[in-house]
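can u do me a favor
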């Protein structure tokens, strides 16, 4: 029966991440650790206010499951015990990590999935909202990314897109 540890941490971002609703310079993260005495599994989440989540509420939701975890609640039972969201995600990830470590296997092996392709998954590099010149420079730095996602706010849209295309001609 895993023991639960829940903490909050502040992780500084390398650069400010700007979208139309504001800017972030750090990520406020809830970290969950499930330990069986020999192995520890870890999961994390970032609560989002726009989904009605906060650090305090997410931590309270997770801590409310401590007794059930002590009594042996399984990962499958967790799905019914907690509503979908950041809190359940963090605990679920910790469970997957713990189970993989217990069995000396990769997480994808547990449900019988194939290993990720050697070349990996294609994910987008997000370019933060900024001036067209700054977005051009960000595009140059991200030129090796397979896909770029732009954050725009309705101002200088065409200029920003042109600047990104100039900065990363591979993505034209």
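np, heres the sequence
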């Amino acid at each position: 029966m895993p023991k639960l540890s829940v903490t909050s941490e502040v992780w500084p971002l390398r650069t400010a991440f700007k979208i139309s609703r504001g800017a972030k310079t750090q990520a406020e993260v809830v970290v969950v650790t499930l330990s069986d005495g020999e192995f520890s599994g870890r999961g994390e989440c970032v609560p989002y206010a726009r989904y009605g989540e906060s650090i305090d509420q997410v931590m309270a939701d997770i801590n409310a499951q401590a007794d059930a975890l002590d009594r042996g609640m399984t990962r499958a039972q967790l799905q019914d015990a907690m509503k979908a969201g950041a809190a359940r995600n963090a605990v679920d990830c910790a469970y997957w990590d713990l189970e993989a470590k217990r069995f000396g296997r990769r997480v994808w092996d547990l449900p019988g999935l194939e290993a990720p392709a050697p070349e990996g998954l294609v994910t987008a590099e997000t370019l933060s909202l900024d001036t067209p010149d700054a977005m051009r420079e960000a595009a140059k730095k991200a030129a090796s990314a397979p896909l770029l996602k732009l954050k725009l706010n309705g101002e200088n849209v065409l200029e920003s897109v042109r600047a990104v295309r100039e900065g990363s001609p591979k993505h034209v």
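The radius of gyration is 20 Å. hope that helps!!
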